[in-house]
């Protein structure tokens, strides 16, 4: 008796099969599993698709701990994964408000969990759909967003070495609901989805239904067109950035100021995107543009959640917020690889001897070959090390004498004339 042919794939399964075909061979697919209808259906169908293709599948549930039902959501996810034979990781996160709304803070915590649990090189599938995209488009419009904000969520993007994919971004919520009921699935309804104090919920319950069946589809189409325009602008801006580039995260201020304000805004936002930094809010961005013409000694420093900008010696630096360094010092034998607050030490000292490692405190003097005794502060200035990085310079001290200065635990900047300090990768 001939074997029965496999059941034909449903439209939703075909989209997953297509997404699977674009994942790197040998790498795992992960599903972000909240426990709601959308992600429960996504994991259920993904399990079948991945099993047929012989591809590894795992799930990640993020427990925000923000509501009494959080434990029920986690229990549902565990039960579902057990029934499907899918490995589950649970990330319990603390949602911290840093000058942003609760939804944004929860999203940031969720992405921190993605970073912690999903290995680089793997793919993470997210269950957002056409209605979610329509809501995101409207939220962006109500905030007065530009093209990037109106573009909403991309179907696919690279993020910190992982690939994030939304296979069902072009499918309506009603289709997912019908599929979930056809499979007789159980899921958890998030009680906060009915809270009309939240802007997204007001759009979901009051605005989108009034637009009719075609409303979400047309709004999602507008988001897709905005995304195409944003991608094109990114390509043009990337070419401009090459001409302004002065080093990691640094642009030439004079060259930047030669462009129109609109182009300056685009270039700064594009560099933030390239560096995977949050883009500055409109008010902060305008303040930054106003201060591009300040004197070099004005100590321009603009902060916004998750990033900051500084101006120094004709350069505009965009970076993650500088973290305060701990009071630290340790004994070192000159040879052993030891830990530092900035990472493992990767240098050796010859001749080896017992010395002290600590962060620069000020007042250090080093006796250089052919240059004599020089003040370390002046040497760092001459070397062009920005002021906010100088506190992280590690000095090698022997009986109050400075033997060497390191820019981090791997790069030797200066060394005394009677010692040899060598980076390990130079061997």
List key phrases describing it:
globular, alpha+beta, 3 domains, about 425 residues, five-stranded antiparallel beta sheet, Chorismate Mutase Domain, subunit A, six-stranded mixed beta sheet, 14 helices, Rossmann fold
Can you walk through the features of this model?
This protein has 427 residues and is an alpha+beta fold. The chain folds into three domains: 11-221, HUPs (Rossmann fold, 3-Layer(aba) Sandwich), CATH 3.40.50.620; 248-319, Chorismate Mutase Domain, subunit A; 329-426, no CATH class. The chain is 40% helix and 22% strand. The protein contains 14 helices and 22 strands. It has helices at 11-21, 37-53, 70-84, 102-117, 130-142, 147-150, 173-182, 199-211, 214-244, 253-257, 261-274, 282-290, 376-382, 387-390; strands at residues 29-32, 57-63, 87-92, 123-125, 156-159, 162-165, 245-247, 250-252, 301-304, 307-312, 315-319, 329-332, 339-340, 343-344, 347-350, 355-359, 365-368, 372-375, 393-398, 401-407, 411-415, 420-423. The strands form six sheets. It has a six-stranded mixed beta sheet with strand order 3-2-1-4-6-5, sandwiched between helices. Helix 1 (11-21) crosses helix 2 (37-53), helix 5 (130-142) crosses helix 8 (199-211) and helix 5 (130-142) crosses helix 9. The radius of gyration is 27 Å and the shape is globular. The model has no long low-confidence stretch (mean pLDDT 92).
């Amino acid at each position: 008796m001939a074997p029965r042919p496999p059941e034909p794939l449903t439209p939703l399964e075909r989209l997953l099969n297509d997404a699977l075909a674009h994942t790197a061979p040998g790498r795992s697919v992960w599903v972000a599993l909240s426990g709601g209808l959308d992600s429960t259906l996504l994991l259920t169908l993904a399990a079948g698709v991945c099993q047929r293709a012989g591809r590894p599948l795992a799930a990640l549930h993020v427990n925000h701990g923000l509501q009494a039902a959080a434990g029920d959501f986690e229990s549902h996810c565990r039960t579902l994964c057990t029934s499907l034979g899918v490995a589950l990781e649970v990330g319990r996160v603390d949602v911290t408000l840093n000058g942003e709304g609760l939804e944004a803070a929860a999203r940031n915590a969720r992405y921190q969990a993605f970073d912690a649990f999903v290995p680089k090189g793997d793919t993470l599938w997210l269950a957002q759909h056409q209605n979610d995209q329509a809501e995101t488009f409207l939220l962006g419009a109500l905030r007065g967003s530009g093209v990037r904000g109106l573009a909403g969520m991309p179907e696919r993007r690279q993020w910190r070495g992982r690939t994030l994919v939304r296979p069902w971004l072009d499918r309506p919520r009603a289709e997912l609901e019908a599929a979930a009921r056809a499979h007789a699935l159980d899921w958890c309804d998030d009680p906060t989805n009915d809270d009309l104090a939240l802007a997204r919920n007001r759009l979901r319950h009051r605005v989108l239904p009034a637009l009719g069946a075609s409303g979400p589809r047309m709004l999602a189409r507008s988001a897709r067109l905005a995304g195409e325009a944003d991608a094109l602008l990114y390509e043009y801006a990337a070419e401009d950035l090459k001409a302004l580039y002065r080093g990691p995260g640094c642009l030439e201020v004079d060259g930047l100021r030669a462009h129109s304000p609109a182009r300056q805004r685009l270039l700064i936002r594009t560099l933030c995107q390239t560096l995977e930094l949050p883009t500055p809010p409109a008010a902060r961005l305008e303040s930054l543009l106003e201060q591009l013409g300040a004197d070099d000694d004005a100590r321009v420093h603009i902060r916004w959640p998750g990033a900051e900008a500084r101006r120094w010696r004709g350069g505009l630096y965009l970076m993650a917020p500088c973290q305060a360094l701990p009071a630290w010092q340790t004994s070192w034998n000159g040879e052993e690889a030891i830990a530092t607050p900035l990472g493992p030490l990767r240098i050796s000292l010859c001749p080896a001897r017992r010395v002290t490692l600590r962060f620069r405190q000020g007042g250090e003097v080093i006796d250089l070959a052919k240059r004599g005794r020089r003040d370390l502060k002046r040497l760092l200035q001459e070397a062009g090390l920005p002021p906010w990085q100088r506190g992280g310079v590690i000095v090698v001290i022997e009986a109050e004498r400075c033997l060497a200065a390191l820019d981090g635990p791997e790069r030797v900047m200066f060394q005394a004339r009677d010692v040899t300090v060598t980076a390990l990768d130079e061997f």
